[in-house]
Design a protein that fits this description.
MFS; 82% helix; Growth Hormone, Chain: A; transmembrane; transmembrane helix; MFS transporter; MFS_trans_sf
Amino acid sequence: MRFTTYADLFRNPAVRRILILGLIIRIPLWAGNIVLTLHVVQHLDRSYTQAGILEMVYSLALAISGPWRGRRLDRVGLRTSLIPSLVVMTACWLVAPWVGYWPLLILVGVVGLFMIPGFSIVRQVLIGAVPDEQRTAVLSVDSVVVEFSFMIGPILGVLAAVYLPTPVALLICQLACVVGGVVLWIANPSLGIDKADTDAAAGARVRDWLTPAVVAILLICATATVILTGEDLGIVAAMREMGHTSSIGWVLALWGGGSAVGGIVYGALHRHPPAGVLLALLAASTALVALSHGRPMFVLLLFISGVFCAPTITATIDDLSRAVPAGVRGEAMGWHGSALTLGGAIGAPVIGAAIDNNGWQGGFELAGAIGFASAVLGLIAATQRRRAGEADEELAPEGVERAFDPSV
């Protein structure tokens, strides 16, 4: 392992700055999400089902906006692409906390369509700020920062909703997201795309770079989110069934801690396992949690499963960034974000039904089974593509080089 790589990364001022900016953007985002749910069920006196519908609308809007917001990044740059987001988000969130449920539903959908592509921006800046050999390590560091922000944001959101009226708490959290976007606009970090890349992106179509390898990466990404959604719901159900409802918070935090440890170790490895292998390990370790008897064993197996969370997502980002031209990286990262969002949207009702019918163990078992089956199919397909590529190479006339195929 090469933990010294991390020291080299933190000596890079561009890396330090964008990681700090990433925290500024992400913490209020997670806080705002939890406050939005509490606002719907407490202030608006609506059901959790209606809160879920609002979250679904928001998620679908994010899934739609990811690719086109990323395409704007590729074609017009960071500052120009952020201006519509800053204007629309400010206007919507100044009004949204003070309206009823149905107007709020519409405003949240509009915000989702114009959401600042913060995750995509941070990762593009990091990729452009380091040499290729440090790319996996710097993306692993970012995955740890994401876990850290995820552990802090909801806590701050709940505190804000407890000590302030939820409309005020919602306004503060969401305008903090806008402030983060303004800071990002002022900093204007380099996305690592030169003019030639931008010109190439202007004429690029999705079908030009959406190879079978890219599709496979996006499917792995979506499946990983199905698993993580299953674990998230399963933790809540398990702790309630075991009579430890008050433990949900620290158990979730410990799960996130396992993910952070896995991200650090993964980034320091000399050789990195493929995303399909990591997905299989994540799925298998998730299914094993269903064998738990009692809280101590549950927490231990959950921590072990958490170790494979961040590496799996990091591997998909790393693989995707290498499988597409630099000029369309923003759009590709947008599709990656959409895959994450859709995986969660699909996974929540499916895993929820499994928990309702078979208890919390059913949620972990189904999530693990879906993930493992997908990983095996993906690895088989990758092997077949590799063999087909080798056969083509052998059949190619002497002196003719085989074109680069990122799926091989």
